[in-house]
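[stage:ingest] chain + small molecule (2'-deoxycytidine-5'-monophosphate)
[stage:ingest] validated
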Amino acid sequence: MSNGFTVAIDGPAAAGKGTVSKAVAAHFGFAHLDTGLLYRAVGAKVLLGMDAAVAAQTLVPDDLDDDSLRTPEVAQAASKVAIIAQVRAALLDFQRSFAARAGGAVLDGRDIGTVICPQAQVKLFVTASAEERAKRRFAELSGRGIASSFEAVLADVRARDARDMERVEAPLRPAADATVIDTSDLTVDQAVGAAIAAVDAVRGSG
Ligand code: DC
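[stage:predict] done
[stage:export] tokens:
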């Protein structure tokens, strides 16, 4: 399915997979796709009244380039539309084509190693405790001037975890052959270093 070198990075919200994915892509010169943006773009359209399946089927790349996709409201809407099989199906080909591009690709999301790219050469599952993830997300939102409380952010993280892990379609879980990186007690540099080492281990032996 995938001709290029693919790194699949999955994990729950705010575990650091975005940071790790960008750093891995930059280090190896691979293209990067944050697949959460696809679901966020669909969620944002649903908040404006569009049907979720239609929104997914008519999505264009420009829809991903929008700062308003980063709000907690859109994140929750994304997690809700992500349950819908037709939405996931409509987004499949785009993700698989991206993964197969020449020159290598890093995709991060929830089901990359399990459903989108089960043949990926490297699979990572980047995770951290719910409290640590809420702490990071709270700091990030405060830094961007978005008002909220730690308790509200923790409740949001837990609600999204439950919905992402318990859904029937492509639930969030590590692939059997994924390397798990728990970033709870790691610095950003340590987490990135662990991910780069995992890729090097495969490329070196290839
Ligand atoms: O990674 P993120 O926080 O931007 O993702 C937003 C939501 O999109 C997440 O709660 C679940 C959904 N999602 C998904 O179901 N599958 C993916 N590959 C990526 C995101």
